[in-house]
Give the backbone structure.
Amino acid sequence: MFATVTSRRWATILGLVLALAGISAAQTDDCLDYADYLHWVACIELPYPAEGVAMADGLAYVADNTAGLRIYDVSEPGSPVLVGAVDTPGRAYRVAVAGGHAYVADGWGGLQVIDVSDPSAPVIVGAAATPGVLNYYDLEVMDDHAYVADEQHGVHDFDVSDPALPVAVGLAEPYGYVWGLAGHGDHLYVATDIGGLAVIERATMSVVGSVALPNACYGVAVGGGFAYVAGYSAGLQVIDIADPVAPTLVATLASPGNTLDATLVGDLVFTCEHGGWRGVRIVDVSTPGSPVVRSTLATDEVVNAVAVADGHAYVANWYGGLLVADIAPPVNAGFVGTVLVPGSAYAVDAVGDHAYVADSHAGLQVIDLADPVAPVIVGSLDFAGQLHGVAAVSGRAYVCEGGVVDLVDVSDPAAPRLLGTGDPPGIPRAVAVVGDLAYAACDDWGLQVIDFSTPDAPWIRGHVSTSGDAVDVAVAGAVAYVAVLGHGVDVVDVTSASWPAIVANLDTPDVAVAVCVAEDRLYVACDEAGLVVADITTPTAPVVVGIQDTPGTATDVTVLGAVAYVADFNAGLQLVDVADAADPKLVGAVEVPDNAANGVAGSGDLICVADWDGGLHLAWPQCGATAAPELTPPRAARRLAARPNPFNPATTFGFELPRRQTVVLAVFDAAGARVATVFEGELDAGRHALDWRARGLASGVYTARLQTADGARSGKVVLIR
């Protein structure tokens, strides 16, 4: 690694720069405390797309489309707990909470009024219909009135002084389709698709003012004499409403994508974005005429709504579920340094003072890390084929290029040279190296073992067909762990490199994309399921002990000490504390400029992130996370696998038990009602498969839950008739 005095000097300089910018950086020497910066703390999977969210008394109320209303206890924001749910007749798009009741804009179900005085047993007590069909998008509750945006049918005013008997008492019809609304004082402020912002007097439900805006308007927030309008491709529009009859556009903040909604909290506006960039922007409007983006939270799905409470943001992330972020303070952590590569950074490995980037279209790039603030390309080697992966060891780099594996001498980083080429069948996607042997994950040709003991004449020493397309591999001792698309991780005994043999398979909750071994733990980047941690104390019998969902799509993982660093594609670099492997936790994040974190590698005091067209980024590791993860006894994972999924009419649930115990496997519908008990009784330690035939059930999403003495695990299954 680079000299300590150099790294400390740059750490000091970076700290001074942040201090001058008014940012408190909890950084010492070669590390950073990411908990002091904006980061996600929880990702909750939902049965259907998350459309809206509201906060009240430590509870998050989520409008979950076809699944209706779901209520979560967020007294511990990092560990939300579902406490109650109620299905609604339509599709829940938005929710507001007032006076012990939740008001849901429910698509064709109209306005639904739900008694939530007992959050564990919410009950629909009232409803009101309007002409719209699938046309409810927003609502506001003020002074015993519920105002509902009904697209082309305008804004409806319901008297809800008796929540069980909502009564229509008024209608306003501004020009255009009504998408969003916010109430303040005596007026409603309405965002429309072609009419800009309209101002409605609540007492008469008449339009008293308006301002034309350049694009369709989807949402609005109001406070301090200004309206903040989500203007879709026009970004955030700031409107002076000191005179509601004559609102005036005073500022525009462009969007990297399309702005869908806005939430105002103090001097900050949280905007919901989709399109070219997805996520939440936190905008400082302390000077409304000059809005400034203070920080961002990237996501992999469309952000529909944001609610803020007690230093946390609760994000309705469509198919990404409910996300929770720690926003105190609302400042992003940053990278130490960045270097652009000629093409696209696809994968990375790092050893000592150098990083090796598989540049998809411009060959191998060798990058000097001695000055982490200003990393520089010192050497490169072009190839005819497209690069997919790279592994570096002791002056050599093994490069997955097109349909071959190239051995490159990098002992002189400024002059890398080709030593030999191995030509396995299939397309090598990734490679792991032990001695003179390269273990290549070769798509539908499985695991190929290439002997490079004679560099200019490598040969295929052994191979084994895997359960599906092999896309990544890690080797520990005499065992290779191969990520297999759609089939989890194959465990391969490589005691004999000439005759590798599959001895086990680790089922994962989603597609296994990348694998990493540290101590006696296997870490798997599992696409939309995030990070999976497995105990490999017995190397040939891995057992899943923990899962942490991530806000993006997990594409790669590396581990330093007690922290796993996950390349989470659109959501950048996610840090997961794995000190307790059975209870991993999101503890930090760094966003990437190109929103395409493909690969990650660790080298001593640095984390290297491959960001496609954004190049290679360098980050400090988390402070105080140098201890190895706890070697706790295996505990039940939080997810349960089913195949096939979707299914009709039968599926098989698969799981493993660390010891003999009593288990209950049951299936629940979207409302939380048990619809089937698949099994109840004792099972021995080991792997189990239980069949279930969905008799008499309609198409939809169901939750399977396995309760054991060690805990519970669950998973979603989709029945398609």
Summary: Helices lie at 4-20.
